[in-house]
Write a structure and sequence with these properties.
- The chain is mainly α.
- It has four helices and no strands.
- Helix 1 runs antiparallel to helix 2.
- The longest helix is centred in the middle third of the chain and has 15 residues.
- The protein starts with a helix and ends with a helix.
Length: 86
Amino acid sequence: MYPTIQEKAAHLLYFVTKNHSFVDGNKRIAAALFVCFLDKNGLLFDKAGKPSIDTNALVALTLLIAASKSSEKDIMIRVILNLLVQ
């Protein structure tokens, strides 16, 4: 369904944040799962050892996803993917 690891990670972050799977802590859990997923798939750090996504960017992105409308899903996924590529 999602051809790349980055797309899987982006959708994981989006859906856990938006679907309110947990009673509390959805944004925190989504961010933690996202980081864990990137780490398990060797994408948390680039070749130079720098994190592939800045902590502050992840916080801002998770809050942005939570505040976004469901109709903006594709835009949010593209934003996540763009941040992972840089």
